[in-house]
Amino acid sequence: MTVASSPPSRLPLRSAEGAQTEPQTHRARAREGQGDGPLAALFIAPAMLGFLVFLLWPTLRGIYLSFTRFNLLTPPQWVGLDNYIRMVNDPIFWDSLKVTVEYVFINIGVQTISALAIAVLLQRLTQSAVLRGIVLTPYLMSNVVAGIVWLWMLDTQLGIGNEILQGFGLDRIPFLADESWAIPTIALINVWRHVGYTALLLFAGLQAIPNDMYEAAKVDGASEWRMFWRITMPLLRPVLAVVLIMTVIGSFQVFDTVAVTTAGGPANATNVLQYYIYGSAFGRFQFGYASAMSVALLVVLSAITFVQYRLTRAGHTDLG
Amino acid sequence: MRFRTVVALTGALALSLVTGCAKGGSAGSSANTVTYWLWDANQLPAYQACAKGFEKENPGLHVKITQLGWNDYWTKLTASFIAGTQPDVFTDHIQKFGQFADLKVLEPLDGLGIQDSAYQSGLAANWTGQDGHRYGAPKDWDTVALFYNQKMAKTAGISAEKLNSLSWNPRDGGTFEKAIAHLTIDQNGKRGDEPGFDKHHVKVYGLATGGAGDGDGQTQWSPFTGSAGWTYTDKKRWGTTYHYDSKTYQSVVQWYFGLAKKGYLAPFTDYSEGANPANAQLASGKAAAAFDGAWMISTYYGAKGLDVGTAFTPVGPTGKRATMMNGLADSVTKNARNKKGAKKWVAYLASDACQKTVGSYAIVFPATPDGTKAAVAAYRKKGIDVRAFTRPVADKKDFTTFSYPITNYAADVYALMHPAMQDVFANDAPVSGLSRTNSQINLILDQ
């Protein structure tokens, strides 16, 4: 009966014997699996609860609030698209978006190239676990502490960074107080903190590339440079793509370093979108408008992630 | 069996989460406890002493004091209003009063019988809302004066008498500008008023920078705008239009920030609220003088290796010296858990008994005249002359005092003026641009 009911077209590559046993196995598994359903649901429940309570519900509520005027202490009033119209006409919002994009470009550009270089060097030149550990140390520090330490070190008058510059006979640089220096400086502070972690992720990706490929290339007389471009990069692409997607999302959400070093200044030069959203919500109690900007950020990030995913073919590997 | 164990564990975890959340909402409160928040760590011992006195007078009541730094204080207070975990009583600032009044999170204190005459002039009246109810009990006051490095002044040949007789005007800066130019020294040792002075390589600035000053300029430009006769708004309290578009205001601001272009005032880039505020610039020897508030007296006098003196703000075009006179108050939250106890505590905080105790710690000027006297005596005992701060309040002939601007939408005014003033100071944006910001502010106030 089972043999007769199995359409051959569904199992084109399997042997006749296989075709006979497969439905039995499948049914047996299904029978066994019936008892696992509630247990599986139970295991999923904590994560699902967390997803519903901390992600889905706040997101839906945030979207709802973006259509209201709401100060948190009195009930929200429905205002339709007013917040979105205001956002489109708000030059500070567009300026924040521009500043954020500028930050992301510098941060991700420098971070990815540096992390890739560190990861390749770690893989090709050393086996030392201590060295790998050292690379990760800045990541062990909280963003706020890192921000404060750098704020002190880069202070125009008192910072050791400027003392060193002056020691070399150079002019002092207002790293965090000048509008053209502030964003690159914050971007590089965060590169310093995150580059080790990013390098470690890429390093893990490099470990998955079989060593015999490099050996074969060496036998063929390929240089390290050529091996990097012809073996490492193509085979690392899926990992690199995922790392890039994750770091870009994180980079767009920069907040704490800005909050402790420049507070959005000077003159809104570092007023990144998250900081503007925070100021509107918790400084001015405009939670409706802040929600609208948060929804806009969500849309921007979703679009960027989708485009990145497609362009980098993150779901496909060239390995094996 | 295993399934039941998992169910039981999950249930226990969920229950602990729920009860944990519930516990967070009522932490630290009980019928006999009054929770009280303040931001100034220097003032904590003084208010702990007050709490002891209060608990002695009110057996069974206990005051739990929490101190948080200025920035965390307001963020946490906001969050506490939202979460319903607000303190019963908190130290309130005029800058925030308008916003809290808008949000209706304060409890009226009319029943406490607070009399304007019991406090230094104007302090009690500032804490009355537009609805006529009182929302704050005066606790202290402060004015602004010039702190200066006595050693640097002496080397420059500028005596204390001279520093106390300076005048200024927005055209040439008057004797005040001459004095700070003379206090300025470049890397080659040339003073600011000497030929060959290199304004791009200054070693010691005559005047420290306290940043751009947002919309109030309390310790930056307000002594000058005040002595030029300018006022922030159309009314003393709860004004409906701001005056940042005034020609007088803009000319004063242009002159003041222009001092940085001449090399006499430390530039905007040298200021950092977190790392290098005005007092740090003075303490590190990078600046010779700084305008700052009375709340900073113990910080300046406590700086190692700094021999500091204080002088009056300079005489302005009106013929008077001017300083902001700001006062803090204690407010009770509308949803205070122990409202009765909270009001008793606020009444005690506003009393002479508590304010004299606070005064004896020499950290702030309490709002009652006797409290102020106690503070002056305590400062004197420490060898600190505080006349530069107290005389503006006592001498109405030579001094003008003015309040922090009290209006609705204070947070919006800050959000607009903060970057606008930074733009003028840091980026040399034209002061006329402030007229546009002023229009935006007035539009918001007109809602």
How many helices of chain A? The count is 14
> Overall mean pLDDT score of chain B?
91
Q: Name the CATH class of the largest domain in chain A.
A: Mainly Alpha
CATH superfamily of the largest domain in chain A, called what? Answer: MetI-like
Radius of gyration of chain B: 24 Å
**Residue runs with pLDDT of under 50 for 5 or more positions of chain A:** 1-22
- The CATH architecture term of the largest domain in chain A is Orthogonal Bundle
Strand count, sense and barrel status of the largest sheet of chain B are: 6 strands, mixed
Share of β-strand residues of chain A: under 5%
Residues in helices of chain B, as a percent range: 40-55%
The two chains with the largest interface, and their residue counts, are:
A-B, 38 and 41 residues
Q: Structural class from helices and strands of chain A?
A: mainly alpha
| Large-scale geometry of chain B | globular
Membrane topology (chain A): Multi-pass membrane protein
Family (chain A): Belongs to the binding-protein-dependent transport system permease family.
InterPro entries (chain A): ABC_transporter_permease (IPR051393), MetI-like (IPR000515), MetI-like_sf (IPR035906)
Transmembrane segments (chain A): 39-60, 103-122, 134-153, 181-204, 235-255, 287-307
